[in-house]
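Predict structure. Chain length: 219.
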Amino acid sequence: MMSNLFSVFDPSSSLFNNWISMLMGLMILPWSFWMFPSRVQVVFVNMFLTLNLEFSTLLGPKKMGAPLLLMALFSFILMNNFLGLFPYIFTATSHLAVTLAMALPLWLSFVLFSWVKETVHALAHLVPLGTPPVLMPFMVIIEMVSNIIRPITLSVRLAANMIAGHLLLTLLGNQGILASTSVVFIIVTAQILLLVLEFSVSVIQAYVFATLTTLYASE
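Prediction complete.
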């Protein structure tokens, strides 16, 4: 039971037994999606314009190229989260190997840039304004620990939310194997509602990951 429950997070048990599912969204889109305008494209364009405005506001006028990277990161996470809702498709964002590979290089680049280019500001950021002199050594330790665990919290938050929803879907699906007709109807209805909720979680988690990364970069 436990092996079947957690087999949805095993790449070898999916239809694509490797990490190619991370790029599957680009392969299944028809060529007409890129050539002719559609309602889906209008929705995506409006969404990206809103994200670009928000990221540009947070980063400031001197970092005009960064919103493009953050929007690409948002699109990549959203695509993988959404594809993971389909049967027999491996959810790459449910693995710490993928989420850490996205969060750690970005965080490391922000830290190195701040300490090399903005050394005085980086040192001042370790002690919040108005801190009593007695508490300054402790505040430095607390701020350093909070900065170090940022990539871990980013990656664990995304992976944990993806794992939780898939576990609930798997548990509900296993319960309907030997159930009666009325119970199966209730389980299927619950699964449909949970799928709608998981789709919302997929969008929200991609937005949270990109927004927190933007906030860390703006510091």
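Summary: The mean pLDDT is 77.
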